[in-house]
Predict the structure.
Amino acid sequence: MAQQQFNIQRLGAVFALILGLCACGGGGGSSAAPRLQPSPTVVEPTTPPDTTAYIMDQFFPGKNFAGLRSLARAANPGNPITNTLINCTVLVTEDNLCSFNQIPLLGMETSAPTVDQVMDRVLVSHDWMAVRMREVFNEMPPELLLIMRGITAIVISYDVRPSFYWSGSGAIYIDPDRLWLTTAEQQTIDPAPDYRADLGNVFLFTMPARYVANGDTDLRSLNRDLSSISMRLAGLFYHELAHANDYYPPGRLASIDRTVPMYLATSANGLPSNLLQGTFPLTSVLMDRLAGVSFRSETVRLADQSLTAEDVAAEFQLDVANDFYSYSSSREDLAMLFEEVMMYYSYGLDRDVAVTDLPANLESCSQLRVAWGQRNRVAQTNILPRATLILEALLPELAAAVTLQLDDVVPTQMRVDEDFCTNILVSPSATRSLVLPGAVNTQLPPLFQTYL
């Protein structure tokens, strides 16, 4: 009986570890580019198959991280904590759970992480990822480095898709699709799609989103250079770092128990995301149900398959979510708020969210007829207090400054019955050119899901 009870407790621990996973991506829509389809250039393991039960392999349907385990290396060669980083973030089993004594959060060692300190916590599967990551960090605003306090490590690997945060290791795991600059680099990345990519295709509607530069340019349409990929990666980092700082907010770092496994070092009752739901809850049962199908692989109801874009628009605009993905979980609700406000604060980027038709064969932007849409929804009077609440918990040093900047923003409505891409000019009298140098903003990005 004692042994049986022990096994039940162990199963419960593994379940809790998996629940600590936040699989997402952020960044205001897909960053995917048309991809060549060669096999990724990787070094295959030559040893017999590993039968160890690694916890990470239980995260996603049919996913195995054997490639990451065989290729993981420190971004900084000779890093003395390399083995600890790999053991605590990649080679994690039920019997090999690390504590913060073994690998502390960055914020336990410094109140303002530098690029060098962050790079000491980076693992990669390919050397070019380490070079590019340092270049990108040197391009990013200081506030992004500041919220690195909530992580133990950054793992970048060719076979990570989608990007995710895991409280069981305190690390973020990054899909390098937003990181490459050359075709040779792109060809090292596994082209397998995100397992969630088709989940919402059972509906008659979709909810595209994008970041807009200069009032008329989709961020995803910019040519790939260091500046554009840095901005696109910033959206992803703000999203994943929001998860990290949700579990381990800066105000609680000094009181965290460093002796227990990481997933036991936080209390769900004290998470800012739970405070957000308790104070300013999302209330739409319908949107939650639709998100369950689109993001949590739940079974679709027959009646929901006949909902029109107008039906969904009427429901969504009455609640206080800034994005459809906010309904996937309370953790994602927090991350979507933080991502949007920080991208506006750091880069001055507007964010659009819309409800459009979803035709059976989507080939052109002209098919994405807008039933409702809004720019800078997060600045709406009944939504901004939600963002302020999580800013005060996750980034208290800048909460007042970010909120003050958003106080002057007025959300703008899109034009109904025009297509999503034409609606990038929210004012019909705008005189800006639709195409800026290096941008073709009328192109249809391959996918619109906000978590890619």
The CA atoms of residues 235 and 251 lie 23 Å apart. The first strand starts at residue 21 and ends at 24. The first helix runs from residue 2 to 19. Residues 1-11, 28-39, 428-452 have pLDDT under 50 and may be disordered.
